[in-house]
Amino acid sequence: MAGQEEHVKNEESVLPAPRGAGADAEGDPLLVVAGLTKHFPVKGGFPIRRTVGQVQAVDGIDLSVRAGESFGLVGESGCGKSTTGRLITRLLEPTAGTITYRGQDISHASRRQLAPIRSEIQMIFQDPYSSLNPRQTVGRIISGPMEVNGIEPEGGREKRVRELLEIVGLNPEHYNRFPHEFSGGQRQRIGVARALALEPKLIVADEPVSALDVSIQAQVVNLLQQVRQELGIAFLFIAHDLAVVRHFSQRVAVMYLGKIIEVGDRDSIYTRPRHPYTHALLSAVPEVNVGDGETAARERIRLAGDVPSPIAPPSGCRFRTRCWKAQDRCAAEEPPLVRISGNHAGHLTACHFPEEPTIEAREEDIVLDPALAALEEGGSAG
Ligand SMILES: Nc1ncnc2c1ncn2[C@@H]1O[C@H](COP(=O)(O)OP(=O)(O)OP(=O)(O)O)[C@@H](O)[C@H]1O
Ligand code: SF4
Ligand SMILES: [Mg+2]
């Protein structure tokens, strides 16, 4: 299904003009997260169940997303990416730390307090099959958030839904169809239209293309890129590998076991990574054909062992049980996330014995799919 031809209208932009006066200038901090922590209690015991431990899903992360920016959040399964997204959209209550949105502390805001900004932060989910109600028409799905928030656009909701369908490259005539009549990529476009219905300022996209074929991934990423650039919407873009984010995000943070271990602008992360884990992630990207039937040769770093349990993470540096550079100090002292000498401003690394920045080898590691590579041009703008 996901592989079938898509109805795409990307020749010409159909997006309305960006919101003018009153919109945040690109670059202003929209979202600031400080010391954000989420521990889930682990219950055990019989007959009385009590808390016997804590899953340290997210453990004291700092990040900020500027207006109009795409910020990528990357890491292996279980490192706490979705939990971070759910905390920011306030689907989960943080254990500690603060979430500040446009200067307002929303860390523990009540539903009523959140109401005025609810529409401004939207989420796109990974699975376009389970995230759309199969019994509702596309029209109802997309107009749902407008109904819930009592928004009556000029010309009516149906007109607005048709406009949104057009914006995401779907046929407005398909207003009355059901989700099963669409391919995976088209369903994800419906999810995007639903997220856009309330004119958000920030979209948390939790692995929005992971469930799609690579060729379709590029189209959906392209659409999100267009939305970001033309509507000035900021993204927190969550992905499990560095490949997709590279083409979409100006800044990238790498997570491991609930912590951010490296963060920086795109060039720093992809061409001058310093954390051993970032190196390992980059080397894990599948090999690419470089033409003439030859495959680019490069050193592959194989991570030994499994990701430790977030219930009892290793002392000191959490990556130390899989790190080829680990020494005694790594077990005793947690490395702070700091700017290492030689790094660009804003490029922070949490490691006692960082890698040398490698520039040339990495370039080959990260070129993936030509369709995705073609998008990069657009991604660097802004
Ligand atoms: N409601 C919950 N109760 C208990 N533990 C949870 C809960 N939600 C998540 N966790 C645990 O928190 C950790 C982080 O989960 P999270 O879903 O945020 O990871 P992720 O990085 O999004 O992974 P994936 O790439 O698989 O989506 C995992 O160990 C997970 O099992
Ligand atoms: S602090 Fe030590 S264990 Fe952690 S990544 Fe750096 S070298 Fe490896
Ligand atoms: Mg997840």
UniProtKB/TrEMBL annotation:
Entry keyword Nucleotide-binding: yes
Database matches in Pfam families: ABC_tran, oligo_HPY
UniProt entry keywords in alphabetical sequence: ATP-binding, Nucleotide-binding, Transport
Alphabetical list of SMART domains matching this protein: AAA (SM00382)
Superkingdom of the organism of origin: Bacteria
Every ABC transporter domain range: 31-282
Region ranges (Disordered): 1-22
Basic and acidic residues composition bias: residue spans: 1-12
Segments forming a coiled coil: none
Single GO MF descriptor: ATP binding
Family under the similarity heading: Belongs to the ABC transporter superfamily.
Record-given protein name: Dipeptide/oligopeptide/nickel ABC transporter ATP-binding protein
Taxonomic source organism: Streptomyces asoensis
